[in-house]
Amino acid sequence: MITISLCMIVKNEEDVIGRCLESVRDIVDEINIVDTGSTDRTKEIVSLYTNRIFDFSWIDDFAAARNYSFTQATKDYILWLDADDVFLELDQKKFLHLKQTLNRNTDSVSMNYHLASDEEQNITTSIRRNRLVKREKHFPWIGAVHEYLAVHGIIHDSDIAVTHLPLTHDTNRNLIIYERMLTEGKEFSPRDLFYYANELVDHGNYKKAIEYYLRFLRTKKGWVEDNIRACSKLADCYHQFNLKEQEAHWALKALSYGIPQPETCCRLGFHFLEKNEIETAIYWYEKSLENKETEKLSFQNNACSFWLPHLQLAVCYDRLGQYQLASKHNESALLYRPNDPRMLANKEYFDGLTKNGK
Protein backbone atom coordinates (compact mmCIF):
# COMPACT_ATOMS: atom_id res chain seq x y z
CA MET A 1 0.00 0.00 0.00
CA ILE A 2 1.30 3.45 -0.89
CA THR A 3 1.93 6.18 1.66
CA ILE A 4 0.67 9.73 1.19
CA SER A 5 1.77 13.19 2.29
CA LEU A 6 -0.82 15.95 2.31
CA CYS A 7 0.70 19.31 1.35
CA MET A 8 -1.29 22.53 1.69
CA ILE A 9 -0.69 26.27 1.64
CA VAL A 10 -2.95 28.33 3.91
CA LYS A 11 -3.53 31.82 5.25
CA ASN A 12 -6.25 32.92 7.69
CA GLU A 13 -8.38 29.81 7.20
CA GLU A 14 -9.64 29.32 10.76
CA ASP A 15 -13.25 28.91 9.59
CA VAL A 16 -12.59 25.97 7.25
CA ILE A 17 -9.20 24.36 7.89
CA GLY A 18 -10.46 22.06 10.64
CA ARG A 19 -13.26 20.78 8.40
CA CYS A 20 -10.76 20.02 5.65
CA LEU A 21 -8.24 18.22 7.85
CA GLU A 22 -10.96 16.24 9.62
CA SER A 23 -12.06 14.85 6.24
CA VAL A 24 -8.56 13.73 5.31
CA ARG A 25 -6.84 12.81 8.57
CA ASP A 26 -7.63 9.08 8.26
CA ILE A 27 -6.60 8.70 4.62
CA VAL A 28 -3.13 10.30 4.60
CA ASP A 29 0.04 9.37 6.46
CA GLU A 30 1.49 12.83 6.89
CA ILE A 31 0.06 16.36 7.00
CA ASN A 32 2.27 19.27 5.94
CA ILE A 33 0.84 22.77 6.28
CA VAL A 34 2.66 25.80 4.86
CA ASP A 35 1.37 29.03 6.34
CA THR A 36 1.88 32.19 4.30
CA GLY A 37 1.13 34.71 7.05
CA SER A 38 -1.94 33.85 9.10
CA THR A 39 -3.01 36.29 11.80
CA ASP A 40 -6.00 34.28 13.05
CA ARG A 41 -6.27 30.85 14.75
CA THR A 42 -5.28 28.84 11.68
CA LYS A 43 -2.02 27.51 13.11
CA GLU A 44 -3.64 26.72 16.44
CA ILE A 45 -6.31 24.61 14.72
CA VAL A 46 -3.78 22.93 12.43
CA SER A 47 -1.67 21.94 15.45
CA LEU A 48 -4.53 19.65 16.54
CA TYR A 49 -3.84 17.54 13.46
CA THR A 50 -0.08 17.83 12.85
CA ASN A 51 3.12 19.37 14.14
CA ARG A 52 4.50 19.71 10.61
CA ILE A 53 3.73 23.42 10.19
CA PHE A 54 6.05 25.55 8.06
CA ASP A 55 6.20 29.26 7.30
CA PHE A 56 6.63 30.78 3.85
CA SER A 57 6.85 34.50 3.15
CA TRP A 58 4.16 35.39 0.64
CA ILE A 59 5.59 36.76 -2.64
CA ASP A 60 2.42 36.93 -4.76
CA ASP A 61 3.27 33.60 -6.36
CA PHE A 62 1.06 30.56 -5.73
CA ALA A 63 3.33 28.18 -7.63
CA ALA A 64 6.31 29.17 -5.49
CA ALA A 65 4.34 28.50 -2.29
CA ARG A 66 3.01 25.18 -3.53
CA ASN A 67 6.43 24.05 -4.74
CA TYR A 68 7.81 24.84 -1.29
CA SER A 69 5.02 22.83 0.33
CA PHE A 70 5.87 19.83 -1.86
CA THR A 71 9.48 19.88 -0.64
CA GLN A 72 8.22 19.07 2.88
CA ALA A 73 6.70 15.74 1.80
CA THR A 74 8.41 12.50 2.85
CA LYS A 75 5.96 9.82 1.68
CA ASP A 76 5.49 7.98 -1.65
CA TYR A 77 2.81 10.26 -3.04
CA ILE A 78 1.73 13.87 -2.49
CA LEU A 79 -1.89 14.97 -2.17
CA TRP A 80 -2.74 18.67 -2.40
CA LEU A 81 -5.88 20.46 -1.26
CA ASP A 82 -7.08 23.96 -0.52
CA ALA A 83 -8.36 24.80 2.94
CA ASP A 84 -11.99 25.01 1.80
CA ASP A 85 -11.90 21.58 0.13
CA VAL A 86 -13.21 18.37 1.67
CA PHE A 87 -13.56 14.70 0.91
CA LEU A 88 -17.15 13.66 1.51
CA GLU A 89 -17.68 10.31 3.24
CA LEU A 90 -18.18 8.30 0.05
CA ASP A 91 -15.06 9.80 -1.48
CA GLN A 92 -13.05 9.05 1.65
CA LYS A 93 -13.96 5.37 1.19
CA LYS A 94 -13.03 5.49 -2.48
CA PHE A 95 -9.73 7.14 -1.58
CA LEU A 96 -8.85 4.44 0.94
CA HIS A 97 -9.58 1.77 -1.68
CA LEU A 98 -7.36 3.62 -4.17
CA LYS A 99 -4.59 3.82 -1.58
CA GLN A 100 -4.72 0.06 -1.09
CA THR A 101 -4.84 -0.86 -4.77
CA LEU A 102 -2.94 1.83 -6.71
CA ASN A 103 -0.25 0.49 -9.03
CA ARG A 104 3.06 1.95 -7.93
CA ASN A 105 3.93 2.67 -11.56
CA THR A 106 1.27 5.38 -11.53
CA ASP A 107 2.75 8.87 -11.74
CA SER A 108 -0.40 10.90 -11.10
CA VAL A 109 -4.02 10.36 -10.10
CA SER A 110 -6.62 12.80 -11.37
CA MET A 111 -9.81 13.43 -9.42
CA ASN A 112 -13.02 15.32 -10.06
CA TYR A 113 -13.24 18.75 -8.46
CA HIS A 114 -16.83 19.66 -7.66
CA LEU A 115 -16.93 23.44 -7.52
CA ALA A 116 -20.63 24.19 -7.19
CA SER A 117 -24.01 22.50 -6.87
CA ASP A 118 -27.63 23.58 -7.07
CA GLU A 119 -30.42 23.29 -4.51
CA GLU A 120 -31.13 19.75 -5.77
CA GLN A 121 -27.48 18.82 -5.11
CA ASN A 122 -26.77 18.43 -8.82
CA ILE A 123 -23.14 19.28 -9.55
CA THR A 124 -23.33 22.43 -11.66
CA THR A 125 -19.65 23.22 -12.17
CA SER A 126 -16.78 20.76 -12.14
CA ILE A 127 -13.28 20.19 -13.42
CA ARG A 128 -10.75 17.35 -13.33
CA ARG A 129 -7.37 17.95 -11.73
CA ASN A 130 -4.20 16.00 -11.11
CA ARG A 131 -4.54 15.65 -7.38
CA LEU A 132 -2.17 12.89 -6.19
CA VAL A 133 1.36 12.70 -7.62
CA LYS A 134 4.43 10.53 -7.12
CA ARG A 135 6.90 12.46 -4.96
CA GLU A 136 10.05 11.18 -6.67
CA LYS A 137 8.91 12.70 -9.99
CA HIS A 138 9.29 16.25 -8.62
CA PHE A 139 6.44 17.56 -10.78
CA PRO A 140 6.52 21.39 -10.63
CA TRP A 141 3.78 23.91 -10.08
CA ILE A 142 3.74 26.63 -12.75
CA GLY A 143 2.10 30.07 -12.68
CA ALA A 144 1.94 32.86 -10.13
CA VAL A 145 -1.88 32.81 -10.34
CA HIS A 146 -4.22 30.01 -11.44
CA GLU A 147 -1.22 27.75 -11.09
CA TYR A 148 -1.20 24.24 -12.53
CA LEU A 149 0.73 21.07 -11.78
CA ALA A 150 2.79 19.99 -14.81
CA VAL A 151 2.57 16.21 -14.84
CA HIS A 152 3.33 13.51 -17.40
CA GLY A 153 3.71 9.77 -17.53
CA ILE A 154 1.19 7.20 -16.36
CA ILE A 155 -1.97 8.98 -15.19
CA HIS A 156 -4.90 7.22 -13.53
CA ASP A 157 -8.29 8.94 -13.88
CA SER A 158 -10.18 8.05 -10.71
CA ASP A 159 -13.85 8.51 -9.84
CA ILE A 160 -12.94 10.19 -6.54
CA ALA A 161 -14.17 13.75 -6.03
CA VAL A 162 -12.85 16.64 -3.99
CA THR A 163 -15.69 18.97 -3.01
CA HIS A 164 -15.11 22.72 -2.82
CA LEU A 165 -17.10 24.34 0.01
CA PRO A 166 -16.01 27.97 0.36
CA LEU A 167 -17.49 30.23 3.01
CA THR A 168 -15.87 33.40 1.67
CA HIS A 169 -13.80 34.37 -1.36
CA ASP A 170 -11.21 37.08 -1.92
CA THR A 171 -12.58 38.38 -5.21
CA ASN A 172 -9.78 40.89 -5.80
CA ARG A 173 -6.68 38.84 -4.88
CA ASN A 174 -5.92 37.32 -8.29
CA LEU A 175 -6.73 40.50 -10.21
CA ILE A 176 -4.37 42.48 -7.98
CA ILE A 177 -1.54 39.99 -8.60
CA TYR A 178 -2.03 40.10 -12.36
CA GLU A 179 -2.12 43.88 -12.45
CA ARG A 180 1.01 44.06 -10.35
CA MET A 181 2.68 41.74 -12.86
CA LEU A 182 1.62 44.12 -15.65
CA THR A 183 2.97 47.13 -13.76
CA GLU A 184 6.29 45.36 -13.26
CA GLY A 185 6.47 44.58 -16.97
CA LYS A 186 6.39 40.82 -16.53
CA GLU A 187 5.60 38.85 -19.67
CA PHE A 188 2.27 37.04 -19.62
CA SER A 189 2.16 33.44 -20.77
CA PRO A 190 -0.83 32.42 -22.92
CA ARG A 191 -2.36 30.93 -19.78
CA ASP A 192 -1.87 34.24 -17.93
CA LEU A 193 -3.60 36.13 -20.76
CA PHE A 194 -6.56 33.77 -20.58
CA TYR A 195 -6.97 33.84 -16.82
CA TYR A 196 -6.41 37.58 -16.59
CA ALA A 197 -9.25 38.00 -19.09
CA ASN A 198 -11.40 35.75 -16.90
CA GLU A 199 -10.66 37.96 -13.90
CA LEU A 200 -11.64 41.04 -15.93
CA VAL A 201 -14.96 39.41 -16.82
CA ASP A 202 -15.59 38.57 -13.16
CA HIS A 203 -15.04 42.26 -12.36
CA GLY A 204 -17.31 43.51 -15.14
CA ASN A 205 -14.55 44.96 -17.33
CA TYR A 206 -15.85 43.35 -20.52
CA LYS A 207 -14.14 45.68 -23.00
CA LYS A 208 -10.68 44.98 -21.61
CA ALA A 209 -11.51 41.28 -21.27
CA ILE A 210 -12.23 41.13 -25.01
CA GLU A 211 -8.77 42.60 -25.67
CA TYR A 212 -7.04 39.95 -23.58
CA TYR A 213 -9.07 37.00 -24.88
CA LEU A 214 -8.13 38.07 -28.40
CA ARG A 215 -4.48 38.38 -27.41
CA PHE A 216 -4.65 34.91 -25.90
CA LEU A 217 -6.18 33.34 -29.02
CA ARG A 218 -3.69 35.10 -31.30
CA THR A 219 -0.81 33.33 -29.53
CA LYS A 220 -2.15 30.02 -30.89
CA LYS A 221 -0.44 28.39 -27.92
CA GLY A 222 -3.39 27.86 -25.59
CA TRP A 223 -4.80 24.52 -24.52
CA VAL A 224 -7.69 23.46 -26.74
CA GLU A 225 -10.11 23.55 -23.79
CA ASP A 226 -9.05 27.13 -22.99
CA ASN A 227 -9.42 28.17 -26.63
CA ILE A 228 -12.98 26.90 -26.64
CA ARG A 229 -13.74 28.58 -23.34
CA ALA A 230 -12.21 31.87 -24.56
CA CYS A 231 -14.61 31.83 -27.51
CA SER A 232 -17.51 31.23 -25.15
CA LYS A 233 -16.34 34.06 -22.89
CA LEU A 234 -16.02 36.39 -25.88
CA ALA A 235 -19.60 35.56 -26.77
CA ASP A 236 -20.56 36.42 -23.17
CA CYS A 237 -18.76 39.76 -23.43
CA TYR A 238 -20.43 40.74 -26.68
CA HIS A 239 -23.77 39.69 -25.18
CA GLN A 240 -23.20 42.31 -22.50
CA PHE A 241 -23.02 44.95 -25.24
CA ASN A 242 -26.06 43.47 -27.05
CA LEU A 243 -23.91 42.79 -30.12
CA LYS A 244 -25.77 39.70 -31.35
CA GLU A 245 -23.77 39.03 -34.50
CA GLN A 246 -20.42 39.13 -32.70
CA GLU A 247 -21.87 36.93 -29.99
CA ALA A 248 -22.96 34.37 -32.58
CA HIS A 249 -19.61 34.63 -34.39
CA TRP A 250 -17.64 33.62 -31.32
CA ALA A 251 -20.05 30.83 -30.42
CA LEU A 252 -19.51 29.43 -33.91
CA LYS A 253 -15.75 30.04 -33.71
CA ALA A 254 -15.58 27.59 -30.81
CA LEU A 255 -16.52 24.84 -33.26
CA SER A 256 -13.20 25.33 -35.08
CA TYR A 257 -11.30 24.01 -32.06
CA GLY A 258 -12.90 20.59 -31.78
CA ILE A 259 -16.05 18.59 -31.13
CA PRO A 260 -18.96 20.92 -30.23
CA GLN A 261 -19.15 21.26 -26.46
CA PRO A 262 -22.56 21.23 -24.74
CA GLU A 263 -22.17 24.83 -23.59
CA THR A 264 -21.46 25.91 -27.18
CA CYS A 265 -24.42 23.92 -28.46
CA CYS A 266 -26.78 25.47 -25.90
CA ARG A 267 -25.54 28.94 -26.77
CA LEU A 268 -26.17 28.35 -30.47
CA GLY A 269 -29.56 26.83 -29.67
CA PHE A 270 -30.55 29.96 -27.79
CA HIS A 271 -29.25 32.18 -30.60
CA PHE A 272 -31.51 30.48 -33.15
CA LEU A 273 -34.43 30.27 -30.71
CA GLU A 274 -34.27 34.05 -30.31
CA LYS A 275 -34.41 34.35 -34.10
CA ASN A 276 -37.42 31.98 -34.09
CA GLU A 277 -35.51 29.51 -36.26
CA ILE A 278 -36.91 26.63 -34.24
CA GLU A 279 -35.70 23.65 -36.26
CA THR A 280 -32.11 24.92 -36.12
CA ALA A 281 -32.44 25.61 -32.41
CA ILE A 282 -33.68 22.04 -31.89
CA TYR A 283 -30.67 20.70 -33.79
CA TRP A 284 -28.21 22.43 -31.47
CA TYR A 285 -30.03 21.58 -28.25
CA GLU A 286 -30.14 17.92 -29.28
CA LYS A 287 -26.43 18.08 -30.06
CA SER A 288 -25.78 19.31 -26.52
CA LEU A 289 -27.39 16.12 -25.21
CA GLU A 290 -25.46 13.92 -27.63
CA ASN A 291 -22.07 15.51 -26.90
CA LYS A 292 -22.11 15.15 -23.14
CA GLU A 293 -19.07 16.57 -21.38
CA THR A 294 -16.28 14.11 -20.74
CA GLU A 295 -14.40 14.58 -17.51
CA LYS A 296 -11.38 16.63 -18.47
CA LEU A 297 -9.04 19.33 -17.28
CA SER A 298 -11.39 22.21 -18.08
CA PHE A 299 -14.39 23.82 -16.44
CA GLN A 300 -17.73 22.25 -17.25
CA ASN A 301 -21.18 23.79 -17.02
CA ASN A 302 -23.00 20.54 -16.32
CA ALA A 303 -26.45 22.07 -16.81
CA CYS A 304 -25.73 22.23 -20.54
CA SER A 305 -25.31 18.46 -20.66
CA PHE A 306 -28.49 17.60 -18.78
CA TRP A 307 -31.54 19.63 -17.75
CA LEU A 308 -31.08 22.92 -19.66
CA PRO A 309 -31.31 21.51 -23.21
CA HIS A 310 -34.35 19.46 -22.18
CA LEU A 311 -36.05 22.58 -20.82
CA GLN A 312 -35.29 24.51 -24.00
CA LEU A 313 -36.41 21.64 -26.23
CA ALA A 314 -39.73 21.73 -24.39
CA VAL A 315 -40.01 25.39 -25.42
CA CYS A 316 -39.04 24.61 -29.01
CA TYR A 317 -41.46 21.74 -29.51
CA ASP A 318 -44.24 23.71 -27.83
CA ARG A 319 -43.77 26.45 -30.42
CA LEU A 320 -44.08 23.82 -33.15
CA GLY A 321 -47.28 22.50 -31.59
CA GLN A 322 -45.68 19.14 -30.82
CA TYR A 323 -46.95 19.09 -27.27
CA GLN A 324 -46.33 15.44 -26.39
CA LEU A 325 -42.67 15.73 -27.34
CA ALA A 326 -42.42 19.05 -25.50
CA SER A 327 -43.92 17.47 -22.39
CA LYS A 328 -41.50 14.54 -22.63
CA HIS A 329 -38.50 16.87 -22.59
CA ASN A 330 -39.94 18.85 -19.70
CA GLU A 331 -40.33 15.62 -17.73
CA SER A 332 -36.68 14.79 -18.48
CA ALA A 333 -35.66 18.19 -17.13
CA LEU A 334 -37.72 17.60 -13.98
CA LEU A 335 -35.71 14.45 -13.24
CA TYR A 336 -32.77 16.73 -12.48
CA ARG A 337 -34.67 19.64 -10.92
CA PRO A 338 -37.99 18.33 -9.53
CA ASN A 339 -38.75 21.57 -7.68
CA ASP A 340 -37.88 24.03 -10.43
CA PRO A 341 -40.86 26.45 -10.73
CA ARG A 342 -40.37 26.87 -14.49
CA MET A 343 -40.60 23.16 -15.12
CA LEU A 344 -43.50 22.71 -12.71
CA ALA A 345 -45.40 25.49 -14.50
CA ASN A 346 -44.64 23.77 -17.80
CA LYS A 347 -45.94 20.48 -16.42
CA GLU A 348 -49.20 22.09 -15.36
CA TYR A 349 -49.51 23.68 -18.81
CA PHE A 350 -48.83 20.43 -20.69
CA ASP A 351 -51.14 18.43 -18.38
CA GLY A 352 -53.85 20.94 -19.20
CA LEU A 353 -53.29 20.49 -22.92
CA THR A 354 -53.52 16.72 -22.51
CA LYS A 355 -56.87 17.04 -20.71
CA ASN A 356 -58.11 19.14 -23.61
CA GLY A 357 -57.06 16.49 -26.09
CA LYS A 358 -54.07 18.28 -27.58
UniProtKB/TrEMBL annotation:
<dbReference type="InterPro" id="IPR001173">
    <property type="entry name" value="Glyco_trans_2-like"/>
</dbReference>
<dbReference type="InterPro" id="IPR029044">
    <property type="entry name" value="Nucleotide-diphossugar_trans"/>
</dbReference>
<dbReference type="InterPro" id="IPR011990">
    <property type="entry name" value="TPR-like_helical_dom_sf"/>
</dbReference>
<feature type="domain" description="Glycosyltransferase 2-like">
    <location>
        <begin position="5"/>
        <end position="128"/>
    </location>
</feature>
<dbReference type="InterPro" id="IPR019734">
    <property type="entry name" value="TPR_rpt"/>
</dbReference>
<protein>
    <submittedName>
        <fullName>Glycosyl transferase</fullName>
    </submittedName>
</protein>
<dbReference type="GO" id="GO:0016740">
    <property type="term" value="F:transferase activity"/>
</dbReference>
<dbReference type="Pfam" id="PF00535">
    <property type="entry name" value="Glycos_transf_2"/>
</dbReference>
<keyword id="KW-0808">Transferase</keyword>
